Amino acid sequence: MLNLVAVLNKDRFCPRWYIAAATDNMSLARAKVAEESGTEKILCNGPGTCIPLCIAGFFLKVLGVKRVTIFYVESIARVRKLSLSGLLLYKLHLADQLFVQWPQLKQKYPKVQYVGRLM
Question: What are the tens digits of pLDDT across the range 46-79?
Fold first, then answer.
């Protein structure tokens, strides 16, 4: 995930906020090293815990409080269908861009962006 964040334009996508599980100390430490600034962008990759954050960001955008863009990257393990988180974001139109790593998912869900393997 940090590899994907590293290629984002820092002037355009800042400030950034990172949210991780309380038991995941390594990801936050790596994010602090890799990060210098952030933005009102939500970049998530699958756990169901991202849904409340995406809903909150969506409401901030709809209410005009903040300009929030939501990016969702589906797991490479999802070959035939989207995960529950991906499906919710897709069906409810909560994500501004939903990225998949398998071409057959693009065929099944035409509004997603096929980006190939990210790792």
Answer: 777 889 989 988 988 888 887 788 889 998 888 8
Length reported for the chain: 119
Please give the model's pTM, rounded to 2 decimal places.
0.66
Is there a contact between 84 and 98 (Cβ–Cβ < 8 Å)?
A: no
- Give the span between the Cα atoms of 104 and 108, in whole angstroms: 6
Q: Which residues pair with 99 in a beta bridge?
A: 73, 113
Q: What tokens appear for 97 in the block?
A: 């861009």
**Is the CB of residue 71 less than 8 Å from the CB of residue 90?**
no
Strand segments (E) across 18-96? 41-44, 69-73
Residue 9 CB-density burial (10 A; 0-12 exposed, 13-18 middle, 19+ buried): exposed
| Torsion angle of C-alpha atoms 51, 81, 110, 108, degrees rounded to 10 | -160
Residue with tokens 């939500």: 42
Nearest-10 crossing angle of helices 84-91, 50-62: 10
- Is the CB of residue 20 less than 8 Å from the CB of residue 29? no
